[in-house]
Design brief:
This protein is α+β, with helices and mostly antiparallel strands. It has five domains: 9-74, no CATH class; 81-194, 2-Layer Sandwich (Beta-Lactamase), CATH 3.30.450.20; 201-273, Orthogonal Bundle (Helix Hairpins); 282-440, 2-Layer Sandwich (Heat Shock Protein 90), CATH 3.30.565; 469-583, Response regulator (Rossmann fold). It has 16 helices and 21 strands. It has helices at residues 21-27, 81-95, 115-121, 138-153, 196-242, 250-273, 286-301, 322-338, 355-361, 385-388, 408-418, 477-489, 500-508, 527-538, 551-558, 572-583; strands spanning 9-10, 33-37, 54-59, 69-74, 100-105, 110-113, 158-164, 172-179, 186-192, 282-284, 305-311, 318-320, 344-353, 371-378, 422-428, 432-440, 469-473, 493-497, 515-519, 543-547, 563-567. Helix 5 packs across helix 12 (477-489) and helix 12 (477-489) crosses helix 16 (572-583).
């Protein structure tokens, strides 16, 4: 009697379970196969050990609950409609992922690539080459082809290889490769990570680290030079006291002093780059600063370069040192002039920048906020792409030998950064260069904006002579000697010490002084440590610090109230004035 099928159902993604070991041998012999089971289907406890693509259950009993049944197991072995449909679903999934993924067949041809993969590879869908090796430089093509072939024919595994894409031949990128099984004709999964942002961030971090290291080096060099220049300028002053104008040696001595002062200006530029100079910020408007410096800039540019100035309305006030900001404009203007040997146009523009404008820029460096933009552009020769990342480094210059120190743009960089601003450079060979400086607008209340420069009233000459007792603490022999002679000549009684410990020993021996003139950075015990000890043990001692480093950099290390500061290098007149002011307290 032929059994009648009461109904059927399809169970996908299940395991066929049986208690009979003999059943394994029977079912393993053919596909598709029939299995007759007495009892309820799925009641066994032994797993056959493979997964079926489809399982068709036809109950033979009338009630459909107990009794015999027919199970039809269909395995397409990766070549049927089930796997084809599965591959379509996989491709749909991969299309929506942000990761760059692609499918490759056993012959190494592309089957599918999502948008992220195309973007990272730098190609469009209609221009996708047939093989993955066609995306990389010729040197890496063989390695990609061999790796894809090995992963397609071997066991299921995954790994990464470093390749260079054709549109990015200078940067290595990781190509992830994984072998696939059971995905139809797809045999290999490729992955490319869009690391452009990561690479950009690494470059920015590396550039910032390099600039910080160079800045520390520049600050140290400036400190050492300032000590040397202090001695040179000081001895020149002492010699000029014995050789008045008209003396045969006067002009030579004056020339030495003038060149020493020029060297001192270079050290100030180094301190500006390393953001270690002392600024005197004011609340001001950028158009006022540009107007103040325009007259001088026109003379520096000459007749062949035309100056164009344009100001937009609504520019907020900024907080910056007006003198240093003028130095920024002059340095950029002089560089632009040198880039236009046959003449051209220098444009200076100022305009407000709103938070929405910053968002539209999509800059990872510039924080969202309100800024006042100072833009300086020229129509000169431009800067090569390979040099654009180095222009703010000290002593780097593209000018001919003898026509530049390489400190102009580094000074601009230091002033802008120390003022809390940001500077960006954009250039193209033959089309000129543009510098954009973003200074944050001042958020405090501004009632009256002071003028950029106030006419200085010449002070009346003041008598520099004195009779106070001074302890001079300085580790550099030449600086200590010239300072001692300068102060002794003014009538002061001067005793010296080589470091802080020796200075404390003078007080321990019972000596007392009206003023302590001390260097800041010294071996064994520095000036601030000595000053704190003196004030703790002997009361409010007058202190005048002097240093080749800038006051701004030493503010945290000094951390003392009621102290005076004298930057190096200084002249005989300057140290006399500083001592006189410190003794007025």
């Amino acid at each position: 009697m032929r059994p009648r099928a009461r109904g059927s159902r399809t169970l996908g993604g299940t395991r066929l379970i049986s208690e009979s070991a003999k059943l394994r041998d029977v079912t393993a012999s053919a596909r598709p196969f029939l299995v007759v089971i007495t009892g309820a289907p799925g009641s066994g406890k032994t797993t056959l050990g493979w997964e079926l693509s489809r399982l068709l259950h036809v109950p033979l009993a009338n009630d459909g609950a107990e009794g015999a049944a027919i199970l039809l197991a269909i395995d397409d072995d990766g070549r049927g409609a089930a796997d084809s449909a599965g591959q379509v679903h996989v491709e749909q999934l991969l299309s929506n992922l942000p990761l760059g993924l692609a499918l490759v067949d056993r012959d190494g041809r592309f089957l599918f690539a999502n948008d992220a993969f195309m973007r990272v590879a730098g190609v469009q869908h209609e221009k996708l080459p047939p093989y993955p090796g066609d995306l990389v430089v010729p040197e890496d093509k063989a390695a990609v082809s061999d790796t894809v072939r090995r992963y397609a024919g071997g066991q299921s595994m995954s790994g990464d290889i470093a390749v260079r894409l054709k549109d990015q031949p200078d940067e290595a990128i990781a190509l992830s490769i994984a072998g696939l099984r059971g995905f139809g004709s797809a045999a290999v999964l490729l992955g490319l990570k869009d690391n452009s942002e990561e690479t950009k961030l690494k470059r920015q971090v590396a550039q910032a680290t390099k600039m910080q290291a160079v800045g520390q080096l520049a600050g140290g060099v400036a400190h050492d030079f300032n000590n040397i220049l202090t001695a040179i300028i000081g001895y020149c002053d002492l010699m000029l006291l014995r050789h008045p104008p008209g003396d045969s040696d006067y002009d030579d001595i004056q020339q030495i002093k003038n060149n020493s002062n020029r060297a001192a200006s270079l050290t100030r530029q180094l301190l500006a780059f390393s953001r270690q100079q002392t600024l005197r910020p004011q609340i001001l408007q950028l158009p006022d600063v540009v107007a103040e410096v325009s007259h001088l800039l026109k003379r520096l540019l000459g007749e062949s370069v035309q100056l164009e100035v344009n100001h937009m309305r609504g520019i907020g006030a900024v907080r910056a040192d007006p003198g240093q900001l003028e130095q920024v404009i002059i340095n950029l203007g002089v560089n632009a002039r040198d880039a236009m040997p046959k003449g051209g146009t220098l444009r200076i523009e100022t305009k407000p920048v709103s938070p929405s404008d910053v968002r539209a820029m999509r800059s990872e460096i510039l924080p969202i906020g309100e800024y006042a933009l100072l833009s300086v552009s020229d129509s000169g020769t431009g800067i090569a792409k390979e040099n654009l990342g180095k222009i703010f480094e000290p002593f780097f210059t593209t000018k001919e030998v003898g026509k530049g120190t390489g400190l102009g743009l580094s000074t601009v960089y230091g002033i802008v950064k120390q003022s809390g601003g940001f500077i960006f450079a954009d250039s193209e060979i033959g089309k000129g260069t543009r510098f954009d400086i973003y200074l944050p607008t001042y958020s405090g209340s501004v009632s009256v904006l002071p003028s950029v420069k106030e006419e200085a009233v010449a002070p009346e000459p003041e008598e520099m002579w004195g009779n106070a007792t001074i302890l001079l603490v300085e580790d550099e022999d030449m600086v200590r000697a010239v300072a001692e002679r300068a102060l002794t000549r003014q009538g002061y009684v001067v005793e010296t010490a080589r470091d802080g410990e020796e200075g404390l020993q003078h007080f321990a021996d019972g000596k007392r002084y009206d003023l302590i003139v001390s260097d800041v950075v010294m071996p064994n015990m520095d000036g601030p440590a000595m000053a704190r000890k003196l004030r703790a043990d002997y009361g409010d001692v007058r202190i005048l610090f002097m240093s080749g480093y800038a006051e701004e950099q030493l503010r945290q290390s000094i951390n003392l109230d009621n102290v005076h500061f004298l930057p190096k290098p200084f002249s005989v007149q300057q140290i006399a004035e500083a001592v006189k002011n410190a003794l007025k307290k």
